[in-house]
Write a structure and sequence with these properties.
With 661 residues, the chain is of the alpha/beta class. Helix content is 41%, strand content 14%. It is built from 20 helices and 19 strands.
């Protein structure tokens, strides 16, 4: 009996550690929920309405921090685990503010992209305070490391506590799920987090990243689905358009109709060109998979016909599944029908790894900002959208036949300054909102006017062409305006506008409900073109009772499985994509006054000269001229187009110095 008492005896130091663990867990659960929800009132409401959710998150935090019981330097390990959880909460608070979406495991794949645009959201003061805070925390960790050392790493009471907490956690979650209180809402990640709590949802986003094969996935079941699709397709007597019109998709960054915000009045209509199209052509509001940010998610759905809800919360497929595999898209479908396929984006070519992803999706070429000249920047240094019309026209002129041009704009991107009264924009606003909200809308409306100018310029350009051309203008997501932060706001944050236009007669369909992954199906229907594999499925099976179940199987099969659903002739092949439409070429050089002048074509401010294989400081003169300092033993000259993080996107011909002699 004495030995048993010794086993369960708790010394004062162990009591202190357990007390720290329990109280620290309480602090963390309230801190995490506060940073997720942004107000103490909402945390209090959560505690009153769904105490089981709070308990589940508290027990999970205890499980996560219990690792310190196994460490020799317990206080330091606990301090670090506390900081990690608190750090995740702070990052979530920031992301909820700038994009309306919490931190997910998938964001780890986009850290580089986040750092690239961080300066548009974080000022120098915040950076300095962050560095000072980090130094202070490191100092505390070092202090605890030197202060604390516990030779008793394994204590039975600690294992008992961890076991009890674990049983309590799983029991609580099971109970809350049975009552449908805790549930994963794949269509609304932010709401899912608020429903289930930050700690639980963050861990869940990690676990959901494990790709699991559906239990009923098999070649036989996929072939049964395919038979149903093929049978429905055979019964469709629609006529195909033999003229094969040009197909244009234009994705408008964070585009919406600002006049729908009831509390605001505008001195003029911010979107007159787009509004005109909504009255004349097929248009409506589409369900999109993201809000406030995550452009590439809607982009992927629209290009491929895949429902991105099947993937993990917050996942950007360009950074994950498209890294190594080739996939069907509108580019592969139209390319097989003889179309030239072009992608255009007025931002960095390797942001979200688009330079790789578009190649995997079958595009012939991709013109990014690095291949553009004469563009203007807005007040937040985003490229203004109107320049895109020139490059769309250039893409259409680049081939004699029909073309697909997929364009992604950027001007309407957040953040939206709350001090925008310092700008003098043409469209003025008055409102009943607080000044910061009004300023955001003032800035946003004038940027969206720039996107609408692109719509107008593109329509005018297409009207002058003698080729049949059809365009789908659509928004990737709603803007992350503070006014949308109200939970009971009357505008659906997961719907975004779309409208067609054509320079020939097309059908005007009444669309009551549509998902962004159905855009390609609707485009092929409007244009009278053959459907691709996903378009066939989405068109012919969408009204079936078991559509969602079939969709899950097809999504797994095509994205991660054996691609039984895809016909052999439709399976994407290895594709080499060209960056930029025009060849960048060095034609000759002049040497004078210790300077080398490179004469050629299609240079931009992103052109970098390499002499004898080494990068040198390059001065951009004009699209035909670059200048660098002379180097001894000059042998070879190459011009490379450089993307973000000094990544080479493409290079010119190699010019030999001996050619000038």
């Amino acid at each position: 009996m004495k030995k048993l008492n010794d086993i369960f005896k708790i010394d004062s130091k162990t009591k202190h550690q357990i007390l720290l663990w329990l109280i620290g867990g309480l602090v963390l659960v309230f801190a995490t929920e506060f940073f997720l929800r942004g107000s103490l009132a909402e945390v209090g409401s959560l505690l009153v309405k769904t105490p089981g959710v709070v308990l589940a998150n508290y027990l999970l935090i205890l499980m996560l921090t219990s690792i310190f019981f196994l460490a020799k330097r317990k206080y330091m390990v606990y301090f670090l685990s506390f900081l990690v959880i608190l750090g995740v909460s702070v990052v979530t608070f920031f992301l909820m503010d700038v994009r309306g979406m919490p931190l997910t495991f998938s964001d780890l794949y986009s850290i580089g992209e986040a750092m690239e645009i961080a300066d548009k959201y974080i000022n120098k003061t915040v950076v300095i305070l962050g560095v000072l805070c980090l130094v202070f925390l490191i100092a505390i960790a070092i202090f605890l490391y030197k202060l604390d050392f516990d030779t008793k790493r394994f204590k039975l009471i600690n294992f008992i506590l961890i076991f009890v907490v674990s049983i309590g956690f799983f029991s609580t979650v099971k109970n809350q799920r049975a009552q449908h209180i805790m549930k994963f809402k794949k269509w609304d990640i932010a709401e899912s987090y608020k429903c289930n709590g930050l700690a639980y949802s963050t861990v869940e986003s990690c676990l959901r990243y494990i790709r699991t094969k559906p239990s009923d996935y098999s070649k036989e079941n996929i072939e049964k689905i395919k038979e149903r699709v093929d049978k429905a397709a055979a019964e469709d007597d629609r006529e195909l358009n033999q003229s094969k019109p040009n197909i244009l998709f234009v994705q408008l960054e964070a585009f919406m109709d600002p006049t729908e915000i009831k509390e605001v009045k505008f001195s003029e209509d911010p979107i007159p060109n787009f509004r005109k199209l909504t009255k004349l052509y097929t248009s409506g509001m589409a369900n999109v998979p993201t809000t406030g940010g995550g452009t590439a998610r809607t982009e992927f759905e629209s290009m491929t016909g895949h429902n991105i809800d099947y993937l993990t919360p917050g996942e950007i497929p360009y950074n994950t599944i498209l890294k190594s595999k080739y996939y069907n898209s509108v580019a592969t479908t139209l390319g097989s029908q003889g179309y030239g396929t072009h992608a255009i984006h007025n931002f960095q070519g390797n942001f979200y790894s688009r330079n790789n992803a578009y190649a995997k999706l079958g595009f012939d070429d991709f013109t990014s900002k690095e291949y553009m000249n004469n563009y203007e920047l807005n007040e937040k240094n985003w490229v203004k959208d109107v320049i895109l019309a020139d490059y769309i026209e250039k893409a259409l002129d680049s081939t004699e036949g029909s073309d697909l041009v997929y364009t992604i704009s950027v001007q309407g991107h957040s953040s939206y300054p709350t001090d925008a009264e310092n700008y003098d924009f043409p469209i003025k606003v008055t409102s009943t909102l607080d000044k910061e909200m009004e300023n955001e809308i003032y800035y946003y409306a004038n940027q969206i006017k720039g996107s609408d100018d692109l719509v107008g310029k593109l329509v005018d350009m297409i009207d002058k062409r003698d080729e049949d051309t059809i365009v789908l203008f659509y928004s990737d997501h709603m803007p992350n305006l503070k006014v949308f932060g109200q939970d009971d706001f009357y505008i659906n944050k997961y719907k975004a506008p779309f409208a067609f236009y054509a320079n020939y007669d097309i059908e005007n369909y009444d669309i009551e409900k549509i998902e962004s992954y159905e855009f390609s199906s609707l485009m092929f229907k409007e244009a009278g073109l053959e459907y691709g594999p996903m378009e066939r499925f989405n068109t012919y099976m969408k009204d079936e009772d078991d559509f969602s179940k079939m969709q899950d199987l097809i999504e797994y099969d095509v994205l991660f499985g054996k691609s039984y659903y895809i016909d052999e002739v439709e399976k994407p092949e290895k594709n080499t994509m060209k960056m930029g439409l025009d060849e960048i070429e060095i034609k000759n050089i002049d040497i004078k006054d210790n300077k080398i002048t490179l004469n050629g074509q299609n240079f931009t401010i992103n052109s970098k000269v390499y002499l004898n294989g080494n990068a040198v400081k390059t001065k951009f003169i004009d699209p035909n001229t670059l200048e660098v300092d002379y180097v001894d033993n000059l042998d070879t000259l190459v011009v490379k187009q450089m993307g973000r993080n000094s990544t080479e996107l493409s290079s010119s011909n190699e010019f030999k110095y001996s050619q000038t002699k």
